[in-house]
User: Fold this.
Amino acid sequence: MSASKALFSEQLKEAARFLREGDDFLVVSHVNPDGDAISSTLAVGEILTQLGKRFTMINDSGNPTKFAFLAGDRIILNDSLHPSVSFKQVVTVDCADYARVGKVMERIPEGTPLLNIDHHRTNDGFGTVQLLHPDAAATAEILYSLINELSLTWNRELATFIYTGMLTDTGGFRYANTNPEVMKIASELLQWGVPGSELAVRLLERLTLSQVRLLQKGLGSLSFSHGGKIAWICISHSDIEELGATSDDMDNLVNYPRNIEGVDVGILFKEMKPGIFKVSLRSAGEVNVAEVASFFGGGGHIRAAGCTVTGSLEEVVADVVREAGKAWA
Ligand SMILES: [Mn+2]
Assistant:
């Protein structure tokens, strides 16, 4: 057994002990929860139910409408909980650092035993017990191992929670983290009756009307330069206001210019306030967009980066496109 595998199986035993020996748990994930955050919260709830424990599941941002079919009203807003309610133990899921839980933190007295379950490589190891596995595709994948460690009973609902976290964190089993182990677990979970196709439609394909309206506006502004190697779309402040769009609604838009055949750099200009543009850059591989973003005081990764630039739309577009185009100068 490799050192990291031995460490993980030791951590599994400690995490299992933490859950078996405690009671009155707070289960919490990060603000602005994604599919892995919500389904990992729910999976820990199901684990604690099977262990006969008392617990409360909270999220600082509440449960997004998109996940309501999974959670019902089981995950509650921090604000809606009576101030007198207290907890003896905490379980955090999918949080790379403690601050990610948000304001819920104010309810947790210092020194409260805390189990930190996460797959982010950047996890800083907070808490009293850690269950960390950076090679796991999702926090839900770690919970799969924990459920087996605890010898709990698999059922359709529990399998659906684990599958959902893995489905969403792998972008529908497409990202580079989709390895043989992920597919092996997913296959096993489907045998418990997980509605795989329904989940894919609901969580990966469905769009809100405002997302489609934004796409309509955005594609109307599609422009190219550098012989088609750079493509961008713009969302003006008035579009955002008119459609009541949130930052979440706009997240995927940058992929449209990036995905066009022949395009190396895709850019999205979002005018968050009049004259203030959040610029998202995506590279198909050739250009290091982190360098482009850092020129404007932003940052990110080689293939995904961002920055904020002020000015008129024409100026901002010209400046960013010129900088991105230096790759071919
Ligand atoms: Mn995750």
